[in-house]
Design a protein that fits this description.
The chain is mainly α. It has helices at about 5-30, 35-60, 70-100, 100-110, 110-130, 130-134.
Length: about 130
C-alpha cells in the first residue's frame, strides 16, 4: 500500500475543515435565530475550504466524476449543497449589511437546509468513495 497522493490528503483535510466551519456557522445562527458577522465568517471560511476540497478531489479523479450515474448524482448534489452554503453566506452578509432583521431571521431559519444537504453529501462521499481514494 503506497502513500496517499498529496491532493487527496489536502482534499480530505479541506473537507473536514469545511465541515467544521459550516457546522459552527450554520448551527450557531440557527440556535441564535439570527445571523452574526461571526456566522457569515465561518460560512465563508467553510466555502473556501469546500472549493479547495472540490478542486483537489476533481484533480485526483481526473476531472469531475460524471459517470456512472451514482457519481453524477453525487457531483450534482454536492454542487447544489455548495451553492446553498454560498447563498446562505451571501444572504446573511446582505442582511447584516442592510440591517434587515427580517432577512436575518429568515436566513437563520433556513441555513440548516443547505448545511444538512452538505453533510449528507459528505457522508455519502466518505462511504461510497472514501475507500477508493485511499
Amino acid at each position: 500500500m503506497g502513500a496517499m497522493p498529496i491532493n487527496i490528503v489536502i482534499g480530505l483535510v479541506a473537507l473536514l475543515v469545511a465541515l467544521v466551519m459550516y457546522s459552527i456557522g450554520s448551527i450557531s445562527a440557527f440556535r441564535a435565530k439570527a445571523v452574526s458577522r461571526r456566522n457569515v465568517t465561518f460560512l465563508l471560511i467553510g466555502l473556501a475550504f469546500d472549493v479547495l476540497a472540490t478542486a483537489m478531489m476533481a484533480i485526483a479523479a481526473g476531472g469531475l466524476d460524471l459517470s456512472p450515474l451514482a457519481d453524477l448524482l453525487h457531483t450534482i448534489v454536492a454542487f447544489v449543497a455548495l451553492f446553498g452554503m454560498l447563498a446562505a453566506a451571501i444572504m446573511g452578509n446582505q442582511a447584516l449589511a442592510n440591517g434587515n432583521s427580517k432577512l436575518n431571521a429568515s436566513v437563520a431559519k433556513w441555513v440548516l437546509a443547505p448545511w444538512a444537504l452538505w453533510v449528507f453529501v459528505f457522508v455519502w462521499g466518505m462511504i461510497s468513495r472514501g475507500s477508493q481514494r485511499l
